[in-house]
Amino acid sequence: MSNLETKPADGVAAGSQVNPVENRFTNKFAHILSDLGKNGIFLALILVVVLFSVLTNGILLRPQNISNLIVQNGYILVLAIGMVMVIIAGHIDLSVGSVAAFVGAVSGVFAVDWGLPWWLSIILSLLVGALVGVWQGFWIAFVGIPAFIVTLAGMLIFRGLALVVLGSASIGSFPGEYRALGNGFLSNIFGEFEIDPFTLGVAAIAILALVVQQFRTRAGRSSYGQAVEPLAWFVAKLVLIAAAIGFFAYELASYKGIPATLIVLAVLVLVYGIVMNRSVFGRHVYAIGGNLHAAELSGIKTRNVTFWLFVNMGFLAALAGLIFTARLNLAGPKAGDGFELEAISAAFIGGAAVQGGVGTIGGAIIGGLIIGVLNNGMSIMGIGIEWQQAVKGLVLLFAVAFDVYNKRRSGGR
Prior knowledge:
The structure is a single chain. The chain is mostly helical. It has two domains: about 40-185 and about 305-413, no CATH class; about 190-255. The chain is about 75% helix and about 0% strand. The protein is built from 16 helices and two strands. The protein has helices at about 20-40, 40-55, 65-90, 95-115, 120-145, 145-165, 175-185, 195-225, 230-255, 260-280, 280-290, 290-295, 300-330, 340-350, 360-380, 385-410; strands at about 185, 260. The protein has a two-stranded antiparallel sheet.
C-alpha cells in the first residue's frame, strides 16, 4: 500500500490548522453581513427618518406631517409597484407621468364635464389606462420595439393628448366621493376619540399577521434546508418593524386616522406581493428578467407576459393619476411632470437591478418612502428645489453603484 501525503490547502502554511471556533465565528459574521445587505434598504429608511427628525426638530414625525407624507407620495408609490415589475422583467416605462396626466384629464371630462357618477368615472378612467397599456404592450411585446422607445413615444403622445383633452386649461371641482380617494380618511368607526382605536386595531392586526407570516416563511426555509438568518437578528428585525408600524399607527390615530390612499396602497402591496412571490406569472417575470433566452427555451410565453406587464402598468398609472387628481381636486396640464423619474428612482433605490431579474414590491415601496422623506424633510428645512433634485440624483446614483458593487463582489458580471 502506498503512503498518501496530505498537502496543506492553498494559503495555509504547512503544519498549521484551521481553528474551528474562529471558522464558525467568521462564517457567522459573514452571514450577518449578508443579512444586513439584504435588509439595508430598510435600515437606510430608518436612518433617513432619524436624520431628518433631528434636522427638522421633530417636525417630520408630527402626526399631521406623517399623514401628509403618505397622502403626498401615494401616487408615486402606486407607480413604483408597477415600475419595479417592469424593471424586473428587463424593461423600462418612461410614459407613466404622461399617462397619469392623460387619465386625470379624462376623468375630469367624465366626472365634471359630462356629470357621470363618480364611481363610473373612476372605472372608465381605469379602463382608459388599461387600454393605454394594451397599446404600448402591443408594440413592445408583439412588434418587438424596445420599451424605451415605445414609452418615450408614449410620454410625448399622452402628454399631448392630455393637453388636447384639457384645452390647455384645468378641470375642477370633483365630487366629494371622488376627492376622498386622495384626501379621505377612515376613522371614528367606533365613535369620537382623541386617539382613534380603529387605526390602532388595524395596526395590531397588521403586526400580528406580519409576525406569523415571517415565522412561517422562516420555518419553511428551514424545513427545506435553506439558510436562514440568526434567530437573534430575525427577532430584532421583527421587533424593529413592529415598533415602527406601531409608532406610525399611533401618530395617524392622533390625527385623522388611516388615509384612504394608505388603504389603497396596502391592498396593492398585498395583492402584488402575492402575485410576484407565489404565482406562476410572478416567477415568469423574474425568469424573463434573469435570462430571456433561457425563459423562452423553458416554454414561457415571454411575449404574453410582457404584454400584460404593460397593461398592468397602464392600469396603475391611471390609478396614480386618479389619486393625484383627487388630492388636488383639479385636472391640470402640468399634472404628472416627473412622475416617471420618481417611480424609476424608487424601484432602483429599493434594490431593483439595472439588468433585470432582481427586485421586490416591498423594496420599491421603501425606496419611494425614502424619496418622500427626502422631499418632505428638505422642504421643511427650506432647501430649494434645485438642491432637492441634486440630492435625489446622488441617492439614486449611490444606490445603483451599491448594486453594481455587490454583484462584482459576489462574482457576477
